[in-house]
Q: What sequence folds into this?
């Protein structure tokens, strides 16, 4: 059943609803941060649970499914990145998560109560992940132009999360059309800056709100900045998915280590996002019980000099002061010049019965 609609945009991943009226869905991206060790991968999943994350995400590719083993110049990285000078095939040989690990990693995630899914990078990865009954697919930033891959993944009927790091409007529209062409409207778009790490001044978090409104989808953030500022701002702008790279300890190294959060940092980010959600609240002009009690300290009309019965009420003997147990200050001009009906002592909150009609 398609639960995506214009009235209440939401998708469901692994039994968790994501969208309007629900907390942000926080994804810890494992990526290459296992550094070639399944033990490290398992420990990272367990650590992700301790941070308060909702999900651990893998990447499913091999060097041969994502690129060619070629030493031609096209395949050498030279765009001012962390990986400049390396050839793509060599980098992905170092970064990939062995497919034979996946079943065990999914099992550990389930034991920890974490949702687990992956980013496929070709059709064979989708077919493999289908055997593991993944609850969703994430399309990485650089794959958003791979329309056949998007269409194939979307055809499996699972929610599709797309990163928009290198996408122009036309690329986003093509990707959305690919999903919807196969009847899949359970889509989320993540604002992403494809720099590693990403400069905070390029975050453009106002895009999170615009993406949701322009494309009628769940929006969120796939973040490569350092720190918690950008996830907080994304949450303020209505982002419902927050994804960050997660590592046990940056000192273990690896292709993604320098822009990944460790356990303490990720825990702080989760806490900051949850506090931000609480602070945002909802539009409601009614006061809580505690706020209503605070009105005791607001201004009201008080007798500031003793008044005798028959005396005039003047600016000299009645003023607007704290606390709030007297008449509302809006009546101030109305009571001036009126006659006191009884003796009233200084420090008494002014009441209607103190005034002659």
A:
């Amino acid at each position: 059943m398609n639960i995506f609609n214009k009235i209440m945009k939401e998708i469901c991943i692994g039994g968790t609803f994501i969208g309007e009226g629900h907390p942000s869905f926080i994804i810890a991206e494992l990526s290459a941060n296992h550094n070639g060790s399944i033990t490290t991968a398992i420990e990272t999943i367990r650590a992700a649970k301790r941070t308060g994350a909702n999900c651990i995400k893998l990447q499913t590719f091999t060097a041969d499914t994502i690129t060619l083993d070629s030493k031609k110049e096209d395949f050498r990285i030279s765009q001012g990145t962390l990986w400049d000078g390396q050839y793509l095939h060599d980098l992905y040989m170092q970064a990939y998560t062995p497919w034979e690990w996946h079943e065990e990693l999914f099992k550990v995630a389930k034991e920890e109560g974490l949702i687990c899914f992956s980013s496929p990078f070709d059709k064979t990865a989708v077919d493999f992940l289908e055997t593991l009954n993944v609850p969703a697919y994430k399309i990485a930033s650089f794959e958003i132009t791979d329309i056949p891959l998007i269409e194939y993944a979307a055809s499996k009927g699972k929610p599709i999360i797309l990163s928009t790091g290198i996408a122009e409007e036309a690329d986003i529209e093509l990707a959305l059309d690919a999903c919807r062409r196969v009847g899949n409207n359970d889509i989320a778009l993540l604002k992403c800056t494809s720099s590693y790490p990403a400069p905070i001044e390029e975050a453009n978090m106002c895009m999170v709100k615009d993406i949701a409104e322009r494309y009628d989808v769940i929006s969120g953030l796939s973040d490569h900045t350092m720190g918690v500022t950008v996830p907080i701002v994304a949450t303020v702008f209505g982002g419902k998915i927050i994804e960050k790279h997660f590592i046990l300890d940056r000192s273990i190294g690896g292709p993604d280590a320098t822009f990944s959060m460790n356990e303490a940092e990720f825990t702080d980010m989760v806490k900051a996002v949850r506090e931000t959600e609480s602070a945002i609240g909802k539009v409601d002009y009614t006061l809580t019980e505690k706020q209503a009690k605070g009105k005791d300290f607001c201004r009201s009309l008080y007798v500031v000099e003793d008044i005798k019965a028959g005396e005039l009420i003047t600016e000299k003997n009645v003023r607007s002061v704290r606390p709030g147990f007297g008449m509302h200050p809006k009546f101030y001009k109305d009571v001036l010049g009126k006659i006191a009906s009884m003796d009233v002592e200084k420090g008494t909150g002014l009441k209607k019965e103190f005034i002659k009609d």
